[in-house]
Amino acid sequence: MAFPTDSARTATNISTAATSHAINVGSPVSGTLSIVFIRFAGAPGAVTFTGYTPIVTAEASDASDDVTYVYYRSNDGTEGATDTLTTGNSIKAAAITWTVTGQRDPIVSPPAVSTVAVGTTTLNTCDPGSVNGAIGSADYLFIALGGMDGEVGAFTAAPTNYTNFQAANSGTASTAATNCLIGGASRQLTATSDNPGVFTHAAANSAWTAFTVAIAPALTVDTIMVGYNMGVSPGAY
Question: Does 215 have pLDDT greater than 50?
Answer without folding.
Answer: yes
